[in-house]
Amino acid sequence: MNPSRLFILRPVATILLMVGVLISGIFAYKFLSTSALPQVDYPTIQVTTLYPGASPDVMASSVTSPLERQLGQMAGLSQMSSTSASGASIITLKFSLDLSLDVAEQEVQAAINAANNLLPDNLPNPPTYKKVNPADSAVVTLAASSSTLPLTEVQDLVNTRVALKLSQISGVGMVTLAGGHQPAIRVQMNPQALAAHHLTLEAVNTLIGNSNVNGSKGGFDGKYHSVTIDANDQLRTADAYGNLILTYENGAALRLKDIAHIEQGPENSFQSAWANNQPAIVISVQRQPGANVIQVVDNIKAQLPALQAALPDGVKMTILSDRTQTIRASISDVQFELMLSIALVVMVTFLFLRNVAATLIPSVAVPLSLIGTFGVMYLAGFSLNNLSLMALTIATGFVIDDAIVVVENISRRLEQGESPMEAALKGSQQIGFTIISLTFSLIAVLIPLLFMGDVVGRLFREFAITLAVAILVSMLVSLTLTPMLCAYLLRHIPPEQQSTFSRKGGELFDALVRGYDRLLTVVLNHQKLTLLVALATFGLTALLYMMVPKGFFPTQDTGLIQGITVASQDVSFKAMATRQQALSALILKNPAVESVSSTIGIDGTNTSLNSGRLQINLKPFGSRDVKADEVIKQLQQATADVPGIRLYLQPAQDLTVNDQVSPSQYQFTLDDADSENLVSGSSKMVAALQQRPEFNGVVSNLQDQGRVSYVELNRDKAARFGITASDVDTALYNAFGQRLVSTIFTQSNQYRVVLEVAPAYQQGPASFDDVYLQPSSGSSSSSSTSTASSTASSSTSTSSSTSTSSSASDSDTASSGMVKLTAIATIHQRTGSLMHMRLNQFPAVMISFNLNPGYSLEDGQRAIADVRQQLHLPESTTLRYQGETSAFQSATGNTLWLILAALITMYVVLGILYESFIHPVTILSTLPSAAVGALLTLLLAGTEFSLIALIGVILLIGIVKKNAIMMIDFALEAEHKQHLSPRDAIHQACLLRFRPILMTTMAALLGALPLMLASGSGAELRQPLGLVIVGGLIVSQVLTLFSTPVIYLLFDGLAQRGNAWVKRRQQQARSGQ
Questions:
Q1: What is the residue-averaged pLDDT of the chain?
Q2: Of 619, 726, 730, 941, most Cβ neighbours within 10 A?
């Protein structure tokens, strides 16, 4: 049966069919989206709750814990981590890959609603959630600043006119305004003056709440007209609040402004942001998990002119960083490498065939197969990304293979004197089964990739399907269009009519064949030695696999560096701001740095006052001479001398497997129900890892050395004054918590009124002396406390005491009857936690680390296991790798199984095709030589055996077996039709197939060569694949040309002896009957 016969005899139908494939592929290409990598993000949602003034302990117990109890019951939740810091609770929820993000969102909303009745009553805002991965760097960072307007007004404009519009863009997960300059009215009280007038901060709170209202007031509906009722019930300016009357004394009004400073300022005075070291509002836009980065950024940029036009002339909005610049450059580089691969493959075909028509025919198969693949990519919802384009680049060497084999076979028959039509019909029939064998055995190798689990499987599924489709399309083209074109375009040119180039090339190739013939004869005469060499490759493969360093995913230079700064745990906000700006100034001096955005303060992303964030945008590749990792080294050296602060840097990556932000690149957590075990164990672990040569930048997020002023209330004393713990909490919150006591409603936004004591009374623990409480009117000591000296006025008026039991308290009470906090409480200075982390509702500590040059992630994990064993951590303490480290552990555990699955799949397919148990083993015996070449190349290049290299090894399994397939096909045919001996048959097959074997190997090698030599954006991703394929093909080509015939003869001899034994047993059985 000849599947090509119909297409050869009907050229018009064949051409029109291929034109249809071409047109559909071109149209599909126009609609394909562009991205850095396939969409493999875990569904991730972040729940944020802000409670200004609350300590980490209060946040953990009263906010985080109730939410975790409800959120932890959701189906499909794979991990829940939380951090509770001063005034902020952040819970990150990571769901399984098979759960839709929209379904997860509904579950999260239901869980938050269920927890609402357990949250504090005075929580200013309910918990909010965003569909965003906190570890994913912003796709676009903007800076808004003005030389004429205050930052509070700039933030208000950005909040009302820009942020909302950006949030509405499809694919945007979260828009964050860093800088903390949301406008507010700040009421800063003088506590001493307040106490002198018989008043407390709670009285001010009540006054403001009652004076600023915005309720419904009804209306009139008369006989002829309806009237709406409105009133001046809302106060909107600082002056209006200053004129509020607290009380009357001796007929004179005591207004708020008499004992307070009232101003319009930021809602949170402990947040700041800078763009290029200038105060600014930094707008960070993060995408939703799964959203296409380039589409999101294109949509944002399309909106920017309108958004800028909506702002006043004095407000300037600039782009600080754009993640898509390097992605677009990377895609452009891969497209160039694809074109270069096509050109190289066509060139090598011409060098071997030395005939324009013979070169043109297989060359047509390359663009046709690749363009035809675009149609299937579009239907499957794939994008043009680094991996799919790498698959197409590699495919250039594969798709031309089938066409080369067909053309070479038909050309050989033409040279033997057959007519073009006869040669096309007979040649395509002879080679048809070989083409099908080559194609399906190569696709079989890719099947295990489709069943890889977790994020790795999602990542490479698109790669495998794209490559498989390209190979299938090339098979169809090679069995239809290629033989048809051969029948009508190929002609045999007699030697005397050939060009000098063609004759010389033919002579050179004939000399190569003669040389190969002589060497093959020698090898076949020394088969045992050859078998020993073949066996040695098995051992060498295992040795090299153990020697080569292993990693997860190549670290890319995306032009963006993320930084985390850490200062001492008791640093003040002002000191932190000074140190952060000092770092930014030094960073901006680096010639490779384009811009820097910097933020400090507790918000939805930063969890403590002693840490800050930096985003460093590097200049384009053409404008800098150094890679991101070298820039990081330079910046760390330049900033090492800045006192009181440490800078941790890591390059932002297109593949974000982490779901938590950490100072260093790799993470693991320790969790334990016993917090004491956790604190001691994590401290020992960090200290031990810092001594190991594998690591640098080892740091934990354990922050338990912050300064805490502990108020120990004497409840007996407090009860004498009728004062409760609730009164104490309220007084402290009013004084030091930036308490939001009222809301100003406008048509465009809502603004808060903030109550606190004046900054002069917030400088340290001594300020507790200025906190006064109001005794209840029915307390037993109310008469005696009215006679005590007034600390607020420093006067000493006294009178007799009616109770000796109260004399100890008399000196600590005011003449106005107010009670000092220090009269009923003792203040202790101690250390405490700045932040609590929990993992799946258990206390946890995250430890992050970087690897020193020369050490792989595998070395790092081995060292961590050694340290853990040496420390004898309690059994209750669980070590869990996070993010990239966890994915690597999962991937390395499956690597050998994946390769084994590929081998078994190929064996099964080849066994079915050849109806033999023996021949597939012969074909697969060529693989160790390819593995030796691949691993040796990685070692020499100093490149890790990463997931990209693993894909290269799996592809090699599919590529190198074609040499054996072509040899064995022709050897079997010679044995059956020409009745040659196995040795003569395989010898003849090797010589006949030498040219197509050499051509197809060179085509595959040159198809991968541009990837190996890649430079520019994204080169780190492509080089391992090119190195593995080029190195593996070179070594396997040299070895398999000689080892395959020997192994064929070995197994053929075993098969013959086996058949003879079976026949003897059958004869013995018959004779016995």
A1: 85
A2: 730
